[in-house]
Amino acid sequence: MKNYLVIGNPINHSLSPKLHNFWIHNNNIDAIYEKQLIEENQLENLILKVKEKKINGINVTVPFKKAVIPFLDELSFEAEKTQSVNTIYLDSNKIIGHNTDGDGFLKALKHDADFDPKQKRVVVLGAGGAAKAITEALGRAEVSSLVVINRTQAKAESTAALATDVGTVGDLEDISEADLVVNATSLGMKDNATQFPCPVDLIHSDQLVVDLIYHPLKTPWLSAAEQKGARTHNGVSMLLFQATEAFTLWTGQQAPVSTMLRAIEEELERRS
Ligand code: ATR
């Protein structure tokens, strides 16, 4: 039997076990996926178990996405660039750290909105971990411009640099020029529910607006963007597709998404 694990602190609310165990069962794989609350000083021993093949794959969540790096043998291109790991596996006896958040976001754009970012103008609001992952992926997807807007300018600069050649730091004036606007700040999450990441007057009906937040499922800002006529999507699909990417990497098998999308939304609705 194969063993998979998601680690973080806190970890109780992680939806990953629900997703992966559904796919494991659905695909008739002899495996189990569990969650484990850990402290930083447990990281090294836990990751060693991947080399010993006692654990076959680890998903990493907040606050350990960077802290795991010293204990890995190699990083994928995406993990190296963003200095953030969410998926660990063994390849040719080397422990590899990868990050599926960026590709998960691109797949979500395709799935939800049939949106191809190539030659599109993008504004990313925020410059934390999520913003870095999507900026790197959008750069690879050949957007024509990517403007990062963030409260802390130094972080905006390091994030924009991840979209090689096209990333710049901007301000609110850039928003109305964008084809795609993404909220990657935490403004709109439960504790900051009423705060908007940008004034909604800057949003218009030719735009696709994505809020990476999924708790609540629809932030007041996303509702306001919808009122402006923009096409809008929340962060549930990115959550789902970062998991399908990890599942496929570990098992070589596809993970069916259609039933899980609704199942996650129902679970999140129950929790709110
Ligand atoms: P994540 O890993 O989910 O991306 P994060 O790394 O904590 O989370 O990033 C949070 C983002 O929300 C950052 O861009 C942060 O801005 P700063 O870089 O200036 O800290 C942004 N953010 C959080 N609270 C904010 C607030 N009150 N006003 C403006 N931006 C805020």
Please describe what this structure looks like.
- A six-stranded mixed sheet has the order 2-1-3-5-6-4.
- 36% of the residues lie in helices and 20% in strands.
- It is an alpha/beta fold and 272 residues long.
- The longest helix is centred in the last third of the chain and has 16 residues.
- The structure holds 2'-monophosphoadenosine-5'-diphosphate.
Distance between the termini: 35 Å
- Rg estimate, integer Å: 18 Å
Shape type: globular
Helix content: 25-40%
Which molecules are bound besides the chains? Answer: 2'-monophosphoadenosine-5'-diphosphate
In round numbers, the mean pLDDT is 97
Structural class: alpha/beta
Strand order of the largest sheet: 2-1-3-5-6-4
Count of individual beta strands: 12
